[in-house]
Automatic annotation (TrEMBL):
The entry's keywords: Hydrolase, Lipid degradation, Lipid metabolism, Membrane, Transmembrane, Transmembrane helix
Transmembrane segments: 7-27, 33-51, 63-86
GO biological process, one term: lipid catabolic process
Domain PNPLA: 119-332
Keyword Isomerase: no
Alphabetized InterPro entries for the sequence: Acyl_Trfase/lysoPLipase (IPR016035), NTE (IPR050301), PNPLA_dom (IPR002641)
Active site: residue positions: S152 (nucleophile), D319 (proton acceptor)
Residue interval(s) of motif DGA/G: 319-321
Protein name: Patatin-like phospholipase
GO MF: hydrolase activity
PANTHER family listed in its UniProt record: NEUROPATHY TARGET ESTERASE SWS, NEUROPATHY TARGET ESTERASE/SWISS CHEESE D.MELANOGASTER
Pfam families: Patatin (PF01734)
Organism of origin: Roseiarcus fermentans
Length: 571
């Protein structure tokens, strides 16, 4: 019986290692295999051969007896430690700061000299990949982004872009598996920090370390001035949004909006570096711990060090999406504070944001979860992840927006993401093939935008041929339906204007629907994306810009004419 127990304990060690690899994931399966083989060879050499080539190898018929239980578990620990060391020693260089989001190569004429804010919603790496597509397409259209407000997953890419990062580099990093949270969480290198009786090491610190190492520690400097950034957090002690900028904090609630300049008017413990702010911005309660800290600030318009009225309040900071999953309110409040139009504005330098936060236009990139989810995802973890998504919906695009500054919302078409009322009354999906893709109206788009949309379709040859056929038979611009013969074609009907129009609509609509399918199945806390899924989410972000190109151009033109009356065209 003792022998059976001994064998079972010995055999359990490799099973534990396999279970760890399955749970933690891997940066490189080849590297892990080589590391395990190296440790195993060393242990076999030292213990199984029992010192010297003149002895018979003990593993001949008695392999398990050659190892004691302590030796086997020493092998397990050695493998675990070596894999952690290899992860760190062979980690690729941090992503470079080679982006030009704030200064595209060719700036669109209507966007020149405008300050354009971009709100990057929460939604984990799913949202971050979609935002990357939005940023890449805005850059392609020559629309510079001067200010960014970010929440949760939006803060991951927003922080990188605000340092001068390139969204394309971020996408490559996700595809290459640079953000393995569970691997880092379960790494042997973090064991001492977990065991130390002092300090407060947590899952949030692991996330901050990943963000810092991969995105924010490049020795290179930005090639152009990057956008200004405000990172959104929520103080659940008082129900207010806390926006962290380079030089201060914006505290915004239902009835207040006040900015405090760091050092001059406020200090908040524990928010010193950008990676920490990013990790708190995505610290959804239950998934990551809150940061409990203190804010010391002056109420009177006089320096904190000499103020006659200094207050101290405790804060419990969590995911910014708990109160505003778009980060939109902080951008609106920042604009009002910079302009002096906030109802709580005080004209003192310690309470004033800089001129750089006066915005002419806000673009909203909504990467929050769809109102419908995969019903097959069951279990506690799936329920927690879905709860995070639903919270984001409540504070996301389904809301009433203020008219100023002007806004363009980039979100899923309503035919692909129904609102709450439609779901409650059981409004069906538009399975009718003659209606389901009608959010795409090619006849209403300019030639350049139409070319860009078709270029996104993976099957380039089919896409080009379909577009060419559509252009050869292009008809009136008011097509809104298609004859049934185009859906179930009869001989001779395939060359009609309606059918060529429908072929293009169906081709583009099918690809967009496919990208939305990837979006729907992705969870907020997911960080492991295949190249196909990652590029699909990026493509969806690009589509959102292009489908709203007409509205975006018109809003840009109006904003430019309002700021620069000389640009106004005579009727």
């Amino acid at each position: 019986m003792r022998l059976v127990i001994r064998y079972a304990l010995v055999a359990l060690a490799p099973l534990i290692l396999l279970a760890w690899l399955w749970l933690a994931g891997t940066y490189s399966a080849l590297r892990d295999s080589v590391g395990i083989a190296f440790v195993t060879t060393g242990f076999v050499t030292v213990f199984a051969w029992r010192g010297g080539s003149h002895r018979k190898p003990a593993f001949r018929g008695q392999f398990l007896r050659a190892f004691s239980i302590p030796q086997v578990y020493a092998w397990l620990i050695a493998c675990w430690v070596l894999l952690g060391v290899l992860d760190r020693a062979m980690e690729p260089a941090p992503l470079p700061f080679t982006g030009h989001v704030a200064s595209p190569v060719k700036v669109a004429s209507q966007a020149a000299d405008l300050r354009i804010g971009l709100a990057l919603s929460g939604g984990g790496y799913r949202a971050a990949l979609l935002h990357a597509g939005v940023l890449m397409e805005l850059d392609q259209r020559g629309i510079p982004i001067s200010n960014i407000s970010s929440v949760s997953g939006g803060s991951i890419i927003g922080a990188y872009i605000a340092q001068g990062g390139d969204p394309a580099e971020f996408v490559k990093a996700v595809i290459n598996g640079r953000f393995r949270f569970k691997r880092e969480l379960l790494s042997a290198l973090n064991l001492p920090r977990w065991l130390l009786p002092f300090g407060a090491f947590s899952r949030r610190d692991v996330q901050a370390a990943i963000v810092h190492r991969v995105l924010l520690s490049s020795p290179s400097s930005a090639s152009a001035k990057p956008p200004a950034l405000i990172v959104a957090m929520t103080d659940i002690s008082r129900g207010i949004s806390v926006g962290a900028t380079d030089n201060g904090y914006l505290l915004a609630g239902p009835t207040t909006s006040r900015f405090f300049r760091t050092g001059e008017a406020i200090t908040i413990d524990g928010l010193g570096d950008l990676a920490t702010r990013v990790s708190i911005s995505g610290a959804f309660p239950g998934a990551f711990p809150a940061l409990r800290t203190n804010a010391i600030f002056t109420v009177n318009p006089e320096p904190l060090a000499t103020s006659s009225d200094v207050r101290e309040i405790g804060m419990t900071l969590v995911d910014g999406g708990v109160r505003d999953n778009l980060g939109l309110k902080l951008l609106e409040n920042a604009d009002a504070s910079a302009r002096g139009t906030s109802p709580t504005f005080v004209p003192w330098s310690g309470f004033q944001l800089g001129e750089e936060w006066k915005l002419d236009l806000i673009v909203i990139s909504d990467g929050g979860k769809s109102l419908e989810a995969d019903e097959n995802n069951k279990g506690l973890l799936s329920e927690v992840m879905r709860a995070i998504d639903v919270t984001g919906l409540e504070t996301g695009i389904v809301r009433i927006m203020t008219p100023e500054p002007p806004k363009v919302a980039l979100s899923l078409p309503s035919s692909l993401s129904f609102g709450p009322d439609a779901i409650i009354v059981g409004f069906p999906h538009p399975h009718n093939a003659r209606e389901q893709f009608f959010y795409f109206q090619p006849q209403q788009l300019d030639e350049a935008t139409l070319d860009r949309i078709v270029e996104l379709i993976p099957d380039r040859t089919t896409a080009k041929n379909t577009l060419d056929a559509y252009r050869r038979t292009r008809g009136p611009t008011n097509l809104t339906k298609v004859d049934l013969e185009c859906v179930i074609p009869k001989k001779g009907s395939e060359d009609s204007t309606e059918c060529r129009w429908w072929d293009l609509v169906r081709l583009v609509g099918t690809d967009i629907e496919g990208t939305v399918g990837v979006f729907r199945k992705s969870e907020t806390l997911e960080d492991d994306y295949s190249e196909a899924d990652a590029t699909a989410l990026v493509r969806l972000g690009r589509y959102l810009v292009l489908l709203n190109a007409r509205n975006l151009d018109e809003t840009l033109t109006k904003a430019a004419e309002r700021k620069f009356p000389s640009r106004r065209k005579e009727p």
